[in-house]
Amino acid sequence: MKKIFLLLLIPLFLQGFIEKGTGDNHVLLLHGFCANTFTWRDQLETLSSAGYHVWAIDLAGFGKSCKNAESYSLALYEKQILTFMKQHRIPSSHIVAHSMGGFIALAFTQNHPSSVRSLLLLAPVAYPIKLPTILAKCPSPLLSLLITETTLRLALKRIFYNNDCITDQRIEAYWAPFQTPGAKEAAIKVLGLFDSLKGRSYKNIKTPTFLIWGDKDKIIPLEQFILLQKELACSEVMVIANCGHAPQEECPHAVNKGLVSFLKRLS
């Protein structure tokens, strides 16, 4: 019965993913809101060269993944990750996750601790955040009209501390998926996921955890970083100076060094 259930899920979870490396020491990379596997391009080679079997996936609703879900919940993303791991025979994995992907990774770890060897979280969304007024109050049909290349560029200016990171290549990588049918509507539906942040606590997580934060992050308040560090008593932390909300893209050298160092200490 379980196999039949998983087969029924596969059409929903047809997705884009990148595989790098071989072996049984798996690392799963989960991107943030409105991102895709492109966000990990500076980590894939480094982690695979360090001996890890690396998988970067497009979460449901983004990138090359299907965008046909009625709603996007933690349960849906949990099923996506489980289905992917079963399809690729991954019994357990280190999980590297950014922003919204961090929230998904934390919840997944709470429900499936034996599947997660460690958590490496970059600016994770872990508690309620204040969404921009236009996202919180604008009717959904109108929101899709506001998702344009111009608004994407403005969003990246808020995400990155260093404006030199906002290149034509990066704009194209994040804008191209929105040209596919259902992409804008899926992104709007995913906003509902943030309601699940209310009342969350992570004190029961005992998985080795590494937190990375940019000290110029305009999306996640530093207070949330401090609170999460306290809840995850087993965590190690790294704060990167003059870095915004996407450390893996803005400061890849520092992030890669930290990721590999932490993973090697667990070996």
Helix content: 40-55%
Q: State the end-to-end CA separation.
A: 36 Å
Query: For the largest beta sheet, what order do the strands appear in spatially?
Result: 1-3-2-4-5-6-7
Number of strands: 7
Largest beta-sheet characterization: 7 strands, mixed
C-alpha-based Rg, rounded: 17 Å
Q: Could you tell me the mean pLDDT?
A: 91
According to CATH, the homologous superfamily is Alpha/Beta hydrolase fold, catalytic domain
Structural class: alpha/beta
Which band does the percent of strand residues land in? Answer: 5-15%
Helix-strand sequence: HEEHEHEHEHHHHHEHEHH
Q: Could you say what the CATH topology is called? A: Rossmann fold
Specify the CATH class.
Alpha Beta
CATH architecture classification name = 3-Layer(aba) Sandwich
The number of helical runs is: 12
Report the principal-axis shape: globular
Number of separate structural domains: 1
Ranges where pLDDT stays below 50 over 5 or more residues in a row are 1-10
Task: Report what the structure shows.
- It is a single chain.
- The longest helix has 15 residues, at 252-266.
- The protein has twelve helices and seven strands.
- The protein is α/β, with parallel strands linked by helices.
- α2 (41-49) packs parallel to α12 and α6 crosses α9.
- It has a seven-stranded mixed β-sheet with strand order 1-3-2-4-5-6-7, sandwiched between helices.
- The radius of gyration is 17 Å and the shape is globular.
- Residues 1-10 have low confidence and may be disordered.
- The chain has one domain (2-266): Rossmann fold (3-Layer(aba) Sandwich), CATH 3.40.50.
